[in-house]
């Protein structure tokens, strides 16, 4: 399921943000002993022109909006590095 979730995260972010760079990493292995151990922990690094002039909090909101219901069903924790191209 994890590979499928990584693929779905990538698909949704590609469609919504048209990034010039996108990395989606499954970080479940880093959360031994935490809630939902090994499941649903991801890191996203996304570089998109849509982030130009947009403050960090709004960038994160754009990522959350693109992921939609995955935030409640499949993603337990998400760290985000959202940047505009320089």
SSE topology sketch:
Elements: H1 2-17, E1 21-26, E2 41-47, H2 56-67, E3 77-83
Parallel strand pairs: 2-3
Antiparallel strand pairs: 1-2
Helix pairs in contact: 1-2
Task: Describe, in short, the structure shown.
The radius of gyration is 13 Å and the shape is globular.
Give an overview of the whole structure.
The protein has 86 residues and is α+β, with helices and mostly antiparallel strands. Helices cover 33% and strands 23% of the residues. The chain contains two helices and three strands; from the N terminus they run H-E-E-H-E. A three-stranded mixed sheet has the order 1-2-3. Helix 1 (2-17) crosses helix 2 (56-67). The chain is globular, with a radius of gyration of 13 Å.
Strand-and-helix sequence, N→C? HEEHE
- The residue fraction in helices comes out at 25-40%
Distance between the termini: 35 Å
Please count the beta strands (DSSP E, at least 2 residues each).
Answer: 3
Sheet with the most strands? 3 strands, mixed
* Number of helical segments with 4 or more residues: 2
Class inferred from helices and paired strands: alpha+beta
Mean pLDDT: 90
Radius of gyration: 13 Å
Query: Could you say which overall geometry the principal axes of the C-alpha atoms support?
Result: globular
Beta strand %: 15-25%
Low-pLDDT residue intervals, each spanning 5 or more residues: none
- Name the strands of the widest sheet in spatial order: 1-2-3
